[in-house]
Amino acid sequence: MKKTVLCIVCMLMSIGVMAQMSTKISAKFAKGSFATYLTTNEATIGTPLGTAPIKSTSTSEVKYLVTEVLPEGYTIEATTLNIEGDFLNLSEAETESKLISDFFKSWVGKKFVLSTDKDLKILAIKNYDELKTEFTKKAEELIKNLPTEGGEGRAITNDALKMVFDSQMSEEKMISTINGKLFDFYGKTISTGMMEDVEVEGMKAKNTYVVSAPKNSDICTINSTTVVTMSNEDLKAMLYKQLGDKMPEDQIEAMKPQIDQMLESGMIKIDGKGQSTFVFKKNGWLQSMESTMTIDVMGSKTEMVSKSTLKESK
């Protein structure tokens, strides 16, 4: 009995200590501070009927330069130095895969002027309209030079491709694309045991955190466990949104009864879980990030691995 009581007391004490471990992620930079990150992404996408999975890899290098420091926040120029990708395993859509690769490679050298708050949380792209105009023009040029619709190597129409590109042009999507997960925590106070609702590839999910921030250490580590939490209504909204990025509205309306029926029968089901580790330097720059995510859609599994490392900083 005494041992049981002692175990319960020790357990409650350890939970109390863990709950007290928290940290606010913020930055204190001077004009001219910079950081360059190398990011690699790998995805193995499961396909139905036992066909070979689709594999893709990409590598990007982005430099962030602090150009202005104000009481309310920072102005940061994010410049893509290099983008490389391997999409050749998309055998049924080789033409479209090359086009999408060429589109993102056109981002190399372009400056995204980011506005942040005083903790480095990104608020907006100051030159968004200029970038959107330039990237839209590039997408239209690439589509115009494609082979005739339905030609050899074509999987989807030009109109569908245009909708895919349009879905990449929102300010929120551009911020996500240029930064990945590098700026996710700035401005947040993260505690061990804290749970947070997040979105992963359009899916609702929940993160649970463990924080390690020793007083005398130069780094802070945040470990995150992610679990996808999608109701039928969430699934329906996500499917309609994704279809809306690729298909005309009348076609989506025609498919809605079938989608609703599949959801009600339980045929459409999504499960997902993942682990991430973020390590921050004392001055505020993220030192490294590693994330793995597995998503199961009706038995077809997709595995995603993302890694970012700090090459140099000041």
| Through-space gap between termini | 58 Å
Structural class: alpha+beta
- Please summarize the sheet with the most strands: 11 strands, antiparallel
Strand content: 35-45%
Mean pLDDT: 83
Rg, alpha carbons: 22 Å
Instruction: Outline the low-pLDDT stretches.
Output: 1-20, 88-92
E-strand count: 13
Q: Return the string of H and E elements.
A: HEEEEHEEHHHEEEEHHEEE
Number of helices: 7
Helix content: 25-40%
The side-by-side strand order for the widest beta sheet comes to 6-5-4-3-2-13-12-11-10-9-8
Shape: globular
List its salient traits.
single chain, 314 residues, alpha+beta, eleven-stranded antiparallel sheet, 7 helices, 13 strands, 31% helix, globular, disordered N terminus
